[in-house]
Amino acid sequence: MVALKIEEQKNFTAGLFIGELFDAFLVREAEITTFNRFTIDGRVRHGYYSDEELEENRIEEFSAWKTVKPFCFSLIRGKRLPESFRIVFLLSPEARDRFVKSRMPDLLPDSVGGLYLNVQYDNQEMTVVTGISMNVFTLDKTLEREWDESVRQFLKKHGVIYEERG
Length: 166
Description:
5 helices; alpha+beta; eight-stranded antiparallel sheet
């Protein structure tokens, strides 16, 4: 796990809510506090969709950020900054499997519960915190270090300036 303080919040927030910076990610959950606290459970309600829609749109267990993003943006836009927000992103199962196979070929991808990014804005400070969950017990932190480095590279590639927290 690594915590990265975002230096240029305005650009980062634009990429998050207006641009496509995190569109490849799924949303585990989101919480936005303005005049009320709004909580979004990213888990898809499959009964809402027809079988054809589920298959055609490749709808998974969690909603894609690009689907949820307009709702979240509508909650934060305006003259006042939100009091806080927190969005928990995770890689899709396919992306998780590719990541695990490329970094640790001997590890079964299903051993990894999820590869996460937690984006938090609170007290006028923006941070991105990495995390992984494992379905098996292991003392090996190789995958965690690989995920941390991958997130650093992702942010650098997209011009996000950050300061690493201890």
